[in-house]
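chain and backbone:
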Amino acid sequence: MRVNVFVDGFHCISRKYSILLGLLIYTSLAVLAGCKNTEEAGKTQTQSPEEQEEKKSGTIRVNAKASTRPFFSVPQVENSLVIGIDADMSSGSARSGEAIRRGLELAIEEINRDGGLLGRPVELIVRDHRGNPDRGLDNLAAFTEVRDLIGVFGGIHTPVAIRELEFIHSNDLLYFCPWAAGTPVVKNGFFPNHVFRVSVRDEYAVGFLVRSALQRGGKKIGLMLERTVWGRSNEKAMKEALADQGMEPVGEEWFNWGEKDLSLLTQRLAAKDCDTILLVCNSLEGVAAVKAVADLPDSQRPRVVSHWGISGGRFFELAQDYLDGVDLSFLQSFSFVQPRYPERVQALTEAYLAKYEDCQSPRGIFAPVGTAHSYELMCMVGLAIHNSQSIETTKLRESLEALENDHGIIRDYDRPFPFNHHDALDSTDFFLARFDSEGVIVPLDN
């Protein structure tokens, strides 16, 4: 199977103007620039930390829509059906994107060994949104031009997926979500709903995180949240979950993508005698949060119970110097090290180790939830295509909604995607984990 990764192109265009026309052109460009700036001033755009740094340093980036569309290549495998990936493949959460790709590669190889789908091979095409919603929209626009597209697997992040929802539904795409937890990604108000998720849903995750914090001795709980739609979704759910316990947060602190010093935030929570921080962020901001907690005096240092975003990037490599001093645990839904169903996972683990030379044992499988979720979800898509004998959007959507009992690597499913509920996992699939001394994600004993 061929996997195509497309990288944005950059163009530098220069023109010569005569001296006689210089003043006229300068004036015209100034007017146009003023109009453009006025138009853009009313818009807000979520940028990845890397893009924010490029902006600060003066690096010029060609607009994604202008740069990626002309370089999009058609499928390379004759007569193939196509699965697309629209994920972070090179930014702060690139390991999550790579984990998703690996899970899909392994599932697709199994499918192709068994004759493909509808008697045709399945091919994977990968595009990189780098955590930027505009890039994600451009990627989806490019995928609409691909022949025989089954659907698109979206990668972390929730803000990207939320931004893409209208395009997905207005263009009759199917969107498969193996890693984005925002409740509105699936509970989105669209009917019929074209989004199917094997991943965490915040509405369930937050209750689990609050219960876990209380079980670990939390009495004064503070919130630290990224300032995105994902963070806002979690804030609302966390306050509701705490209210159900007759509690409210002792404080809440917000930060932007790319912030590197969160010490003032943790100091404010410590000043309120916070004993547990519920943390919602991705890996780069997670490093800053853990460092800030580690820098507090021992007597003021709260434990940290985190959402799973920190497990999708280079968190351990960057934060390991601070972890010994911090009681950190985080949500997970699957482990190759301690799987719920070892006999079901064995073949997938062996295939993974045989294919990827950078991994020598199950302990070396990074971002395990990304691989497991995408593998599981692709198997479901394949089964639904087999049942419907079609990749037409309506027929495939209805076939997914009609799936019945299935014994997966993550859980036993009873109607994973009923017509009014496209989330296959729930809180019974969640557990707390930690990084061991070698950076391996291992489940906690309780």
About this structure: Residues 177 and 197 are 4 Å apart (CA to CA). The chain has two domains: 70-200+340-425, 203-332. The radius of gyration is 23 Å.
